[in-house]
Design goal:
The complex is a heterodimer. By secondary structure, chain A is an alpha/beta fold. In chain A, 53% of the residues lie in helices and 15% in strands. The longest helix of chain A has 17 residues. The chains are: A alpha/beta, B mainly alpha.
């Protein structure tokens, strides 16, 4: 990837749904871009306007979407990654997907990468008709590497012997494949 | 100057150093007002969580995702591709968060 590629990311969190309002989430995307590429003039102007009001009011969602659109159109390639979208409050999730859809429409170089549990698929398809999908489940190789790492990190190595180790390496992958 | 001023400076500093994957290396001077603007845009600090995910991740686990035709199609398609969204779905605990990181 070249230097004209920007990657921004968000992590949704079930325990922090209140803090993760749609405006805050989109703001975090703009914040990542602005901190690396400089504060865009329109964002600076919006801030100065808001500051004139008592208590320096925060941005409303439509204003935030507009600022993001203006910022993103100048980028040749942008990847927006959002983890655990299912942990976002349903209302915020819908607003976030709708906002992303509007952003992608005006910025053809933007790609969106989402992770989440399968049940939110319909909501995503409701906003973006064509969605590419990868169904994740750990491969036997992934499970083996992970177990080896955890065993190597054992804090009570005396409790381990070759037999127990072999049993762990055999039984856990079996149980996972049954899930 | 607000009491939280120094905190803002240190957050912004780590923010720049921990840019996602260091792909974008535009070093930008952020002035005093700029720091206020970043704080005003959002209280969220996703780059902090990103650092811990990055540290906890194990080598090559999940790399197969990068080889899938879906991932390649999504990443390499030209502007205005009809499928701008890639959804990696899976049940709790399969490692979705960690795949997400190594995708880039």
């Amino acid at each position: 990837m070249g230097k004209d590629v920007a990657v921004v990311g968000l992590y949704c969190d079930f325990h922090a749904q209140k803090e993760h309002s749609t405006t805050h989430m989109l703001g975090a995307i703009l914040k990542q871009l602005a901190s690396r590429r400089g504060i865009p003039n329109h964002t600076r102007e919006a801030f100065r306007e808001a500051k004139k009001e008592f208590g320096s009011r925060g941005l409303l969602l439509p204003d935030m979407v507009d600022l993001l659109k203006m910022t993103i159109t100048s980028l040749p390639r942008l990847f927006i990654c959002i983890d655990a979208l299912d942990e976002c409050a349903p209302k915020h999730r819908r607003e976030l997907l709708e906002s992303l859809q509007r952003i992608v429409l005006v910025s053809p170089g933007t790609r969106v990468f989402l992770t989440g549990r399968p049940h939110i698929d319909d909501e995503i398809v409701g906003c973006f008709r064509n969605v590419l999908r990868i169904h994740l489940s750990p491969t036997p190789g992934d499970i083996k590497s992970y177990l080896e790492m955890r065993l190597a990190d054992d804090h009570i190595p005396k409790a381990m012997d070759n037999e127990l180790r072999a049993e762990i390496m055999r039984i856990i992958p079996e149980k996972i494949s049954e899930m | 100057m607000s009491p939280g001023h120094h905190q803002v400076i240190s957050n912004t500093h780590s923010f720049n150093n921990n840019s996602f994957n260091n792909i974008v290396n535009f070093i930008t001077e952020i002035d005093g007002e700029g720091r206020q603007i970043l704080k005003w845009l959002s209280p969220l600090e996703p780059q902090q969580r990103h650092q811990s995910v990055r540290t906890d991740r194990l080598g090559s686990v999940g790399n197969w995702v990068l080889e899938t035709s879906e991932f390649r199609k999504w990443r390499d398609a030209g502007d205005g591709c009809v499928e701008p969204v890639l959804f990696c779905c899976g049940n709790p605990g399969v490692g979705k968060t960690y795949v997400r990181y190594e995708g880039f």
